[in-house]
Specification:
188 residues, mainly alpha, 3% strand, rod-shaped
Length: 188
């Protein structure tokens, strides 16, 4: 079964349905990234100042009201899930690496949002000299979106495949649990 979607009258993209929730997340990221890149591309190619104003204001609103809150919720749910499952936060290298990448991505996102907010604020006094600055900023935004999507895919791959490798704390906890089980089995 295939779902066909349309963004700006583009009927050429299709997505296979599968029961894995990761697929839906990555599909949403793909579609939203496609929409962002189209918005940036349109703003970059148009010569009118009003297009740049709309693009930067939209990026500011989307980032502030959707992307940053979802990133923080993602960090918090990852923390709760890692502490509430057998994987633990400090027991496996892949969990630590995934958590560290998430924190790094959020810090970079927050820093990038400051520049987006600044450029969205310069829209009020836009003239021909500011258009080049806004155009260069859009190229930087496209780079940030691409690298951010790559980091999200790496985190997703780590969370799906769960590569082996215990930290020293995880190894120690595993040995303690084995010793505890052996002591209980010996008493019985």
């Amino acid at each position: 079964m295939t779902i066909r979607g349309s963004i700006h009258n583009d009927e050429s993209r299709s997505t296979q349905i599968c029961p894995d929730p990761t697929h839906y997340l990555l599909s949403w990221l793909d579609w939203s990234g496609d929409g962002f890149s189209r918005t940036r591309y349109r703003g970059d190619n148009e010569s009118g100042c009003t297009d740049f104003a709309g693009v930067w204001i939209a990026l500011d609103l989307l980032g502030s009201l959707v992307i940053v809150p979802l990133a923080i919720v993602s960090l918090l749910t990852g923390l709760v899930m890692s502490l509430g499952t057998k994987w633990g936060l400090f027991q496996h290298y892949w969990v630590l690496f995934s958590f560290a990448l998430t924190i790094l991505a959020i810090l970079i996102l927050l820093g990038n949002m400051q520049s987006v907010r600044f450029l969205a604020g310069t829209i009020t006094d836009i003239d021909n000299s500011n258009v080049d600055m806004l155009r260069a900023g859009l190229q930087s935004e496209l780079l940030h979106a691409g690298v951010g999507l790559l980091v999200l895919v790496v985190i997703q791959v780590l969370n799906i495949y769960k590569p082996r490798g215990l930290t020293s704390y995880g190894w120690r906890k595993q040995q303690e649990q084995r010793a505890f089980r052996q002591a209980i089995d010996a008493e019985a």
